[in-house]
UniProtKB/TrEMBL annotation:
The gene is xylF_3. Keywords: Signal. GO terms for molecular function: carbohydrate binding. Coiled coil: none annotated. The lineage of its organism: Bacteria, Pseudomonadati, Pseudomonadota, Gammaproteobacteria, Enterobacterales. This is D-xylose-binding periplasmic protein. GO terms for biological process: transmembrane transport. Residues 8-99 form the Periplasmic binding protein domain. GO terms for cellular component: outer membrane-bounded periplasmic space.
Length: 190
């Protein structure tokens, strides 16, 4: 087993790392656990050059458009998906609690090496060829027509309901006067 951090989480750095791993192991690689879908893409590029794309299990994270397309095409095995609506709703709840001078509700604590940090953990979802329709496509992230149409224009894949949710969160947080007053007080009245 080999481990290597990918500087900047850049696909081109993942490509180089994967090329080196393939060379060092005579192309005998069983699986790749990538930090996100972009680095998985870099690793898959190296695997593809050796005729191994789709033959080596590879995971990513974030369910980005390119990763979802690679799962459908069979070159990426799975991605870790964190539903944006759940993340945004939880972030808004925490922001409101903080804005009201309340300690955010925590389900558990995680030690960051210095202290135990109150945490609210959400459950990620494995997305693979078998459940892609019931997960990311159902959630509209990314939109189905962007996955199926090979020449779809590159533009933001957020649906209008997602944009509205994000705007609502922004308005909710930025219009909370008590939050701003507390912030000004902490900064010395600026």
């Amino acid at each position: 087993m080999a481990t290597s951090g990918v500087d900047g989480w850049l696909p081109e750095n993942a490509l180089k790392i994967m090329e080196n791993a393939l060379t060092a192991n005579n192309n005998k690689i069983d699986a790749v656990v990538a930090s996100n879908d972009a680095t998985a893409g870099g690793a898959i590029q190296a695997l593809s050059a050796q005729g191994l794309a789709g033959k080596v299990a590879i995971s990513g994270q974030d369910a980005d458009l390119a990763g979802v397309k690679r799962i459908i095409s069979g070159t990426q095995t799975m991605t870790v998906y964190k539903p944006i609506t759940t993340l945004a709703t939880t972030a808004a709840e925490i922001a409101v609690e903080l804005g009201n001078d309340k300690a955010p509700h925590a389900d558990t604590t995680l030690n960051n090496g210095l202290k135990d940090v109150p945490s609210r953990l959400l459950t990620p979802i494995e997305v693979n060829k078998d459940n892609i329709e019931q997960t990311v496509i159902k959630d509209g992230f990314p939109q189905k027509e962007r996955i199926i149409t090979p020449d779809a224009p590159r533009r933001a894949s957020f649906s209008s309901s997602r944009i509205s949710l994000m705007r609502s969160i922004y308005v909710l947080v930025t219009r909370n006067e008590k939050y701003h007053q507390n912030l000004r007080n902490r900064e010395g009245g600026r």
